[in-house]
Specification:
The protein has 366 residues and is an alpha+beta fold. 29% of the residues lie in helices and 20% in strands. The protein has 2 domains: 193 residues, no CATH class; 141 residues, 3-Layer(aba) Sandwich (Protein Transport Mog1p, Chain A). The strands form 2 sheets. It has a 7-stranded antiparallel sheet, with helices on both faces. Strands 8-9-10-13-12-11 form a 6-stranded antiparallel sheet, with helices on both faces. The chain is elongated and about 60 Å long.
Length: 366
Amino acid sequence: MTRIAHAPLGALLLVIAACGGGSSADATERGAAAGAAGGAAANGARPPFELAKAPGDPCQWLSADEVQAIIGSFSAPPVRVRPNQDPSPDPYGTGCLYTLPLQPQMGKGTVVLSVALHSGGAADLVSAASASLFGAKSDTDTRSRNGSQSSGWDHETQLGTTYLARIGHIGVQVDRGTFEIPTEKAKQLAAAARDKMADRPFANPVDPLLDSVRAMAGLQSEPAPTQGPDPCALVTRAEAEAVLGPLTVPPYRSAGDSPLWDANGQSCSYFTGNGHRALTIMPTWSEGKMTFKMAAGIGGVVANVTGVDRGVAADTLEGPWDDVMQDMHGILRFLKGDRMLDVMWVSSSTDRAGALRLAVAALGRL
């Protein structure tokens, strides 16, 4: 991949990752991103339903034969890497590097596949930001919320030699090392990885790097049980299904602002499937005013950097809250007294109006 083509995307993704509003747990962001962690949950518990399984190595999302059938033979074995402008081997890497016999005139004959179990909305955000900053165009809304169109994705975008696609909360990224590798092959590779995934909740995976740091420090590897009320008590299954449609599994605790199952999670997710669709609510039981103010400030900084403005003024949305905003990722945040409620609805089966209906129900019990 040429540095000129990839550098703008790298800058955008760094801004997105660094300024996401502060609602995600660090372990969720690292562990869930791009298939970095294994299928084991971050604690020993199991939910009363079957979980989808993620491989322990991103090179296991697809077999070598499946990848070769799409992009051709390898000149070296697949390698786990840290995706970047210049991918390098990393035992905790979140991508898989495939090296081809191709000797391009510019760039390298390589392809890197990465799968994100959470934060798949980066595809949406990157396309909006790149359109604002560089006038780049993307294939937006290529698939409706009921999955009726043929692309199989909710959103696709390209910037240089990078292809990003999202379905529900799942994101897939394919980085080509050169423009001489056809874009169509990147799309086929991403679709193949998507089609191998079961349409069920994934567990919040163990973060191997964080686990090793804990072990060296003599700390327990499993997090302590979460204190405080059950977030799933804020919206009942019947209330959720009235807005989202039938749930494929009961409401469950999840990790941070993600729909990844976690027995000790601070949020609650309502999973309808039909393309990895889930709505997640996350209460903040104390110091909500300070958290809300910080989130609003960070969102303003990112909007200035990227040119993307998804803010929602409080006076445009009336309801049982003191203040409300929507950040650049589409997360709705409601302030009531010193408590706050985040509603992650973009990857769900409803629209913002439906999310507001569920927020009203939750705030009544907050």
